[in-house]
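Need a sequence for this fold. Nothing fancy.
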């Protein structure tokens, strides 16, 4: 299962670089298209959080703890811990957003390039962890549906990252390379996630919902505000609903 989790999260992470490839051929995307693609990514993450992480976490908790209320409490604890962990990283690690600017402790201490990389890493690491945790209970189909959905949303996200870096003056090849590197943190999260929940079955319900809470924090704190900054909220919402529906279909079909 650890190998499955690593390979699947690696595949999902590589999709970030694949999605950025059109930048090499001079393709530019408009701001409204970029906002719609980020909305799509948010929709995939919301759907994955509920259908592939929270609901399975409650089901596993009910079997392990023998009580629906205990399972729900464990799920709530996991969600809160996941959100708190990303919030702490967001506060402590210096990074910079493409629109809102520097954030974290002493962001001026690092070059702008690394500030961007750290911001994207904070975003991508929990996604890889979610894929790994999806395999932690031995449920290959659930893990594969998560990896497929997150891989699909990583492609437009990779393009959005590369385009944003191009807008900051980076070259085409360097922009694609950085986008790929940010995706390659996902297998690290995948190993951590699958190894953690494999150690003990009692960790699985909290682990699944921990990953969901981390992703939900990112959606609310980063992605949705970003897509609504430029007056394209209708397109962003359309993209969100499309991503949510697609991931739901993938989860029902593959899971």
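Here you go.
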């Amino acid at each position: 299962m650890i190998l499955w989790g690593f390979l699947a999260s690696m595949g999902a992470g590589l999709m970030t670089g694949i999605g950025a490839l059109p930048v090499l051929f001079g393709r530019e995307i408009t701001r409204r298209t970029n906002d719609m693609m980020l909305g799509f990514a948010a929709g995939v993450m919301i759907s994955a959080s509920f259908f592939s992480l929270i609901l399975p976490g409650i089901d596993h908790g009910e079997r392990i703890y023998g009580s629906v209320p205990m399972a729900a409490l464990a799920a709530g604890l996991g969600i809160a811990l996941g959100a708190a962990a990303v919030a702490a990283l967001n506060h402590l690690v210096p990074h910079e957003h493409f629109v809102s600017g520097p954030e974290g402790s002493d962001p001026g201490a690092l070059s702008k390039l690394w500030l961007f990389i750290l911001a994207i890493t904070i975003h991508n690491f929990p996604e890889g962890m979610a894929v790994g945790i999806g395999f932690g209970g031995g449920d290959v189909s659930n893990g594969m549906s998560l990896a497929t959905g997150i891989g699909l949303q990583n492609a437009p996200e990779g393009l959005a990252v590369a385009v944003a870096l191009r807008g900051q003056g980076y070259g085409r090849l360097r922009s694609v390379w950085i986008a790929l590197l940010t995706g390659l943190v996902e297998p690290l999260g995948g190993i951590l996630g699958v190894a953690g929940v494999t150690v003990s079955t009692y960790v699985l319900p909290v682990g699944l919902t921990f990953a969901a809470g981390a992703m939900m924090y990112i959606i609310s704190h980063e992605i949705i505000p970003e897509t609504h900054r430029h007056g394209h909220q209708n397109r962003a919402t359309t993209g969100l609903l499309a991503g949510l529906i697609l991931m739901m279909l993938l989860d029902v079909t593959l899971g």
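For context: Residues 2-20+31-254 form one domain.
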